[in-house]
Design brief:
By secondary structure, the protein is α+β, with helices and mostly antiparallel strands. It has six helices and eight strands, in the order E-E-H-E-E-E-E-E-E-H-H-H-H-H. It is globular.
Length: 213
């Protein structure tokens, strides 16, 4: 388990729209661009093997900027294809706050980050005492039917609160700004409330971005 002392001040960041990583969750990634292959290989040379996942957004003049909050994951699995691509898995460690981007000769982006305020991410699995699982699953089934999505309902019913809520937050087809709202939720219960709101809004045919502005 990571401690605050293990977390570096500077990490490589991967600005991938719609890709959400949360603490104690796993995110599979397919790397094929040369700059991200280099990022991956460089991360393996560090003791932490951390890569920060951040949602990009358009800034002034259409320039790509990073959202302030992202989540770092440790490379825990990888395999190389015959043509030099990598399939990797990041295990979520902690969220962070981008303080500034680091400019230099690296082909990929790096940032100086702060881990302050996210100490909960390094702790034990969170519980959601107010979670009404039966009511939630009824709503979720409506959403999956509406979106024509398939899942293993038996596994969902048996999953722990954190695994269920975080996995759905990562996998459901929400827009990048909606994923960002789920990432920034301060606790598991507030993430679940945000998730429910997004699902309900989608079922009403609304634009969920309206509720997170």
């Amino acid at each position: 388990m990571f401690s605050a002392a293990d977390l570096p001040e500077t990490i490589p960041v991967f600005p991938l729209p719609g890709a959400l990583l949360l603490p104690r969750a796993r995110l599979p990634l397919h790397l094929f661009e040369p700059r991200y292959l280099q990022m991956f290989e460089d991360s393996l040379k560090t003791s932490s093997r951390l890569i920060g996942m951040v949602q990009p957004h358009d800034g002034p003049g259409g320039k790509s900027q990073l959202h302030t909050i992202g989540c770092a994951g440790r490379v825990t699995q990888f395999s190389e294809t015959e043509d030099g691509r990598y399939m990797i898995t990041l295990s979520g460690i902690s969220r962070f706050r981008v303080q500034e981007e680091i400019t230099g000769f690296s082909p990929y982006r790096k940032a100086k980050v702060s881990w302050a305020g996210f100490e909960r991410d390094l702790g034990f699995v969170e519980k959601d005492k107010a979670f009404d699982r039966d009511k939630f699953l009824v709503l979720l089934k409506k959403f999956f039917e509406d979106q024509d999505l398939k899942t293993d309902w038996d596994s969902l019913s048996e999953a722990e609160d954190e695994l269920l809520i975080n996995s759905l937050s990562m996998l459901c087809p929400f827009e990048p700004e909606e994923k960002q709202a789920l990432l920034e939720a301060p606790s598991l219960s507030t993430r679940r409330e945000t998730l429910v709101t997004l699902i309900e809004f989608a079922l009403r045919g609304g634009n969920a971005e309206e509720i997170i502005q």
